[in-house]
Hints:
With 234 residues, this protein is an alpha+beta fold. The protein has five helices and twelve strands. The mean pLDDT is 91.
Amino acid sequence: MKFLKFNEIDSTNNYMKENVSSFENYDIVSAKVQTAGRGRRGNSWLSPEGMALFSFLLRPERSLSMVEATKLPFIAGISTLNALKKIKDGTYSFKWTNDVFFYSKKLCGILIERVKDDFVVGIGINVANKIPEDIKNIAISLESDYDIDKLILKVVEEFSLYYEKFMAGKWQEIIEEINRNNFLKDKKIRVHIGEQIFEGIAKNISEDGRLEIEMNGEIKLFSVGEITIEKDYY
């Protein structure tokens, strides 16, 4: 396994995508600081020193279908959640579609990008960094001195185990575990699609990765990538 470490880089995902042919399965690129970190839909991502900022390569033995590929963020999420549980006790949860929460605040974000048949899995975890005052109500840090390189290796190890289960046909087991850690479940949420706003009670994440929302006594399914969660109600 190759583990490249940078003090500063624009984006570990960008670096790995641009040099993908030089990497093998589960090779890692990390950085102390990212100057152009990104989240889903191109959103900017604060990436200060003290975070675990890294990307690793998934090179499947065969080409994954679009349906299979949409499940990778969930696998990355539950893998990261379990790795974190092993280094610090606390209340962790998975927030559909690609965040890990700690005590109801965002601790980790995930961005997976496809390069032909390869996948670059980008993860950012607040480990030792301080959270800016203006986002302390929604974000949190472990504020831990745990070795960041060891944490990164643990996350990649956990991912490899869950991915192996997935390829062995055990997706049902994985999605059931994700739903046991489903942050949104039974919360009243507001969903924005284009100019339309929907309100309902979040339920399970379905087997195909869609979020079930109870609206006026009926369950509606919302696809990954179609909606953003505007606000959570507690």
